[in-house]
Design a protein that fits this description.
The chain is mostly helical. The chain has one domain. It has 15 helices and no strands. The two termini are about 55 Å apart. Belongs to the glypican family. It comes from Cephalopterus ornatus (Amazonian umbrellabird). Cell surface proteoglycan. One of its GO terms (biological process) is regulation of protein localization to membrane. Its main location: membrane.
Length: about 325
């Protein structure tokens, strides 16, 4: 839920950038933005994709819009062939400078740690669900019956098992489950490592909340190099049809004013806090599979505060 909340926040922030600063292309940019964040979400969930392919696919889709709506706002004939040519040309002429590559680098670290943590949590859930119902052997069933009900044959319905006797029976019954102890401890240590990684150089909140700025800088770079880009595109893709006289640049909202006027507030709880609470809770379960017999033999099942209890053979 925290991942989804962060992704929605970053997507809304990026959409707002286009709606306020780049209105001429906002409507057409909505789909590439949506696809980018869908790809990121699928990556975190473990899909066979990469951050680099998602980001570069986004910039491939963005370049035809930037070229036809901002750099050459007079273009009227943007055919599928011409659009595809612009998409392919983007990879060669690199209109967005180093900003697209930087965005890949910044996102890759934090999204990798998030992806690993997400997969680790899924594995933990699988382990817990698998061991929720332990299969009892015939010997275990007999030992449990003997422990719980044999005193009744002597009319001792209120006498409960001795602690040591209960522990022997439970440890025998749960031997296969307790074998998970070493792996479970290692699993908790791995979770701890991943949560620490996410809080350090791989901070997901910082990476996602900065995406809109990276995209903005990339578009600005393309606009500043508009004449050179146009000359190269004309050679590769040909000249598209133009309106009589280019559209005035006044129809484009000044980027600096628009972005400075925006204030974004994170409405969701901090992912850092959620991580800290989660790992603190999980660390307390480090000995869960080793101490499961002790947990079961605690409380009402056994006689603790009395010298009289059932040892499997007699009242002692």
């Amino acid at each position: 839920e925290a991942f989804e909340s962060l992704l929605r926040f970053a997507e809304n922030r990026t959409s707002s950038l286009f709606e306020t600063a780049y209105r001429p292309m906002a409507k057409e940019a909505a789909e590439p933005v949506k696809e980018l964040f869908t790809d990121i979400s699928l990556y975190i969930l473990g899909a066979e994709t990469t951050v680099e392919s998602a980001v570069l696919r986004f910039f491939d889709s963005l370049f035809p819009l930037v070229y036809s709506r901002l750099i050459n706002p007079g273009i009227t004939d943007l055919s599928e062939d011409y659009t595809e040519c612009l998409r392919l040309t983007r990879q060669d002429i690199n209109p967005f400078g180093h900003y697209s590559k930087n965005m890949v680098t910044e996102l890759s670290k934090s999204l990798w740690a998030s992806r690993m943590l997400s997969q680790a949590l899924s594995l933990g859930i699988e382990v817990i669900n698998t061991t929720e119902h332990a299969a009892l052997t015939k010997e275990c069933s007999r030992a449990l019956v003997k422990m719980q009900y044999c005193p009744h044959c002597q009319g001792l319905t209120l006498i409960r098992p001795c602690v040591g006797y209960c522990l022997n029976v439970m440890r025998g019954c749960l031997a296969s489950v307790s074998e998970l102890d070493a792996q479970w401890r290692e699993y908790i240590s791995t979770l701890e490592y991943l949560t620490n990684e996410m809080a350090a150089s791989h901070d997901l909140e910082i990476a996602l909340s900065g995406m809109w700025n990276s995209i903005n800088e990339a578009i600005l770079h393309a606009q500043l190099n508009g004449p050179q880009l146009s000359a190269t595109v004309d050679k590769v893709c040909g000249q598209p049809r133009q309106q009589e006289g280019n559209l005035s640049s006044a129809s484009i909202v000044p980027v600096k004013e628009a972005t400075e006027a925006q204030t974004f507030v994170m409405a969701h709880a901090s992912l850092n806090n959620k991580r800290r609470e989660f790992i603190s809770y999980m660390k307390r379960s480090r000995t869960f599979y080793a101490s499961i017999a002790e947990r079961l033999c605690d409380g009402d099942l056994v006689m603790r505060d009395s010298s009289t209890c059932w040892n499997g053979e007699d009242v002692v």
